[in-house]
Amino acid sequence: IEGTPGQPYGGTMSEFNTVEDNMGKRRREASSVLEPNQTLLTVTSFPRLGCPGFTLPEHKPTPVEKGVSKSLFFPDEAINRHPRFST
């Protein structure tokens, strides 16, 4: 289930309530189509995210040489090609 909002949230305290409410709505909507013996599992990130060899094919981070993220742990090839991100 996509967890990225259609538009970025602002920085006000009232928008934190909006984020929480939207998360609840997504969970209720997804739960409504599950069988009685099924449940949702929330994983906030891929378990091996940032570990060496977590991509297939394997890509190595390039924090200094090139790239968008400049991350020590996360290669640009692993970034979602989404219009909001400059990959």
From TrEMBL:
The keyword Coiled coil does not apply. Keywords: ATP-binding, Glutathione biosynthesis, Ligase, Nucleotide-binding. GO terms for molecular function: ATP binding; glutamate-cysteine ligase activity. Pathway: Sulfur metabolism; glutathione biosynthesis; glutathione from L-cysteine and L-glutamate: step 1/2. One of its GO terms (cellular component) is glutamate-cysteine ligase complex. It catalyses: L-cysteine + L-glutamate + ATP = gamma-L-glutamyl-L-cysteine + ADP + phosphate + H(+). It comes from the Eukaryota. GO terms for biological process: glutathione biosynthetic process. Its EC number is 6.3.2.2. InterPro entries: GCS (IPR004308). Coiled coil: none annotated. Belongs to the glutamate--cysteine ligase type 3 family. This is Glutamate--cysteine ligase. It comes from Gobiocypris rarus. The gene is gclc.
